[in-house]
Amino acid sequence: MALIVQKFGGTSVGSIERIEQVAEKVQKFRENGDDIVVVVSAMSGETNRLIGLAKQISEQPVPRELDVMVSTGEQVTIALLAMALIKRGVPAVSYTGNQVRILTDSSFTKARILQIDDQKLRADLKAGRVVVVAGFQGVDEHGNITTLGRGGSDTTGVALAAALKADECQIYTDVDGVYTTDPRVVPKAQRLDKITFEEMLEMASLGSKVLQIRSVEFAGKYNVPLRVLHSFQEGPGTLITTDEEESMEQPIISGIAFNRDEAKLTIRGVPDNPGVAFKILGPISAANIEVDMIVQNIAHDNTTDFTFTVHRNDYLSAMRVLENTAREIGAREVIGDTDIAKVSIVGVGMRSHAGVASRMFEALAKEGINIQMISTSEIKVSVVIEEKYLELAVRALHTAFELDAPARQGE
Ligand code: ADP
Ligand code: ASP
Ligand code: MG
């Protein structure tokens, strides 16, 4: 008998019919003799709807109150799913994050899980109940409701699996696994049987929203066997694994990730003195703005240009901070661009192959796509390009690295 944590995402619980289907699925696992903990998201669109309501009151809602509100989405689906299970004769009980006591820090809207009390859950499982837990939410030490950041139900699922030492954490969603890139953008994308934690972590942090980054971090840290599957289609899905050897047989590049959420800022004509990078980025980090890519040009005329990217939501605040800095340090000008996108190729195979970056640049050059910034790590190469070329770039790279699915007959 296995203990399995199953997480169902927003589209999988997006209507009463779907919730009934999920209940049927859980019932089958239960009848197989497995112990099941289910984590659910809010119905698709609900979290956005709730945020929209808050924004009608204030452009920047108070984070604590925002969390009180957005956490309600998941409270509805846990109760509906528990009802659907009980209707089928499956004993079930639903809990909010607070009721379980999923203890987090107090960073509202992006809280981190610190500890999970597994007592209640274990007692319910022992009594033969399916436990249905609200994803995306927790409680801080003062009893405030917190949420874990968008897509956070994945993390709830993995964290519960870690706390309960579950045999597997299954992430059920609207695709049948992790693909070489977002199948909505590249129809020829292929499902991967396996991907390493390291690669999945890069893919997630570079924009592939199929799994929340934190959930992959957690799974890697606590060695939780993690699988992404389709909610309503049979199939093996994708296993996230530590097993690098087998993945090495795959192509050099495992996947392509992209991100439209960044913006670029450049400060020009900066006097080239020691400490200048700190003078520019110190105030940005003091304003709690995270910086992603950074490029500093070689100095000429004793001045240099300095470019970096931030999340698009932080663009205006970063611009205000940078304009202040420019005045203080006597830089020539500050310019910015929000019409950018970042495209990244990811693969552990890169470690043992030379020329991967140049192959990437060649593919982009062939399409006439200009590269504005580049950054590399051991297993990824990222470029910033004009946003309007994003889809073209992803498709071109997918083909160049031989990731396209073979054409089916008649195509
Ligand atoms: P859920 O609501 O179930 O959490 P998400 O929308 O968060 O679902 O994640 C699933 C979506 O992730 C897919 O519909 C797909 O468009 C997108 N996606 C992005 N990159 C990938 C990828 N490499 N493989 C699979 N899906 C991806
Ligand atoms: N409902 C939350 C969101 O939309 C959490 C999740 O779906 O994972 O971000
Ligand atoms: Mg998700």
TrEMBL record:
<protein>
    <recommendedName>
        <fullName>Aspartokinase</fullName>
        <ecNumber>2.7.2.4</ecNumber>
    </recommendedName>
</protein>
<dbReference type="GO" id="GO:0005524">
    <property type="term" value="F:ATP binding"/>
</dbReference>
<dbReference type="GO" id="GO:0009089">
    <property type="term" value="P:lysine biosynthetic process via diaminopimelate"/>
</dbReference>
<dbReference type="InterPro" id="IPR045865">
    <property type="entry name" value="ACT-like_dom_sf"/>
</dbReference>
<dbReference type="Pfam" id="PF22468">
    <property type="entry name" value="ACT_9"/>
</dbReference>
<feature type="binding site">
    <location>
        <position position="184"/>
    </location>
    <ligand>
        <name>ATP</name>
    </ligand>
</feature>
<dbReference type="InterPro" id="IPR001341">
    <property type="entry name" value="Asp_kinase"/>
</dbReference>
<feature type="binding site">
    <location>
        <position position="179"/>
    </location>
    <ligand>
        <name>ATP</name>
    </ligand>
</feature>
<comment type="pathway">
    <text>Amino-acid biosynthesis; L-methionine biosynthesis via de novo pathway; L-homoserine from L-aspartate: step 1/3.</text>
</comment>
<feature type="binding site">
    <location>
        <begin position="7"/>
        <end position="10"/>
    </location>
    <ligand>
        <name>ATP</name>
    </ligand>
</feature>
<dbReference type="InterPro" id="IPR001048">
    <property type="entry name" value="Asp/Glu/Uridylate_kinase"/>
</dbReference>
<dbReference type="GO" id="GO:0004072">
    <property type="term" value="F:aspartate kinase activity"/>
</dbReference>
<comment type="similarity">
    <text>Belongs to the aspartokinase family.</text>
</comment>
<dbReference type="Pfam" id="PF01842">
    <property type="entry name" value="ACT"/>
</dbReference>
<feature type="binding site">
    <location>
        <begin position="209"/>
        <end position="210"/>
    </location>
    <ligand>
        <name>ATP</name>
    </ligand>
</feature>
<dbReference type="InterPro" id="IPR002912">
    <property type="entry name" value="ACT_dom"/>
</dbReference>
<dbReference type="GO" id="GO:0009090">
    <property type="term" value="P:homoserine biosynthetic process"/>
</dbReference>
<dbReference type="Pfam" id="PF00696">
    <property type="entry name" value="AA_kinase"/>
</dbReference>
<keyword id="KW-0457">Lysine biosynthesis</keyword>
<feature type="binding site">
    <location>
        <position position="47"/>
    </location>
    <ligand>
        <name>substrate</name>
    </ligand>
</feature>
<keyword id="KW-0418">Kinase</keyword>
<dbReference type="InterPro" id="IPR018042">
    <property type="entry name" value="Aspartate_kinase_CS"/>
</dbReference>
<keyword id="KW-0808">Transferase</keyword>
<keyword id="KW-0028">Amino-acid biosynthesis</keyword>
<dbReference type="InterPro" id="IPR036393">
    <property type="entry name" value="AceGlu_kinase-like_sf"/>
</dbReference>
<keyword id="KW-0067">ATP-binding</keyword>
<feature type="binding site">
    <location>
        <position position="74"/>
    </location>
    <ligand>
        <name>substrate</name>
    </ligand>
</feature>
<feature type="binding site">
    <location>
        <begin position="173"/>
        <end position="174"/>
    </location>
    <ligand>
        <name>ATP</name>
    </ligand>
</feature>
<dbReference type="InterPro" id="IPR054352">
    <property type="entry name" value="ACT_Aspartokinase"/>
</dbReference>
<feature type="domain" description="ACT">
    <location>
        <begin position="265"/>
        <end position="339"/>
    </location>
</feature>
<comment type="pathway">
    <text>Amino-acid biosynthesis; L-threonine biosynthesis; L-threonine from L-aspartate: step 1/5.</text>
</comment>
<dbReference type="GO" id="GO:0005829">
    <property type="term" value="C:cytosol"/>
</dbReference>
<keyword id="KW-0547">Nucleotide-binding</keyword>
<dbReference type="InterPro" id="IPR041740">
    <property type="entry name" value="AKii-LysC-BS"/>
</dbReference>
<feature type="domain" description="ACT">
    <location>
        <begin position="345"/>
        <end position="411"/>
    </location>
</feature>
<dbReference type="InterPro" id="IPR005260">
    <property type="entry name" value="Asp_kin_monofn"/>
</dbReference>
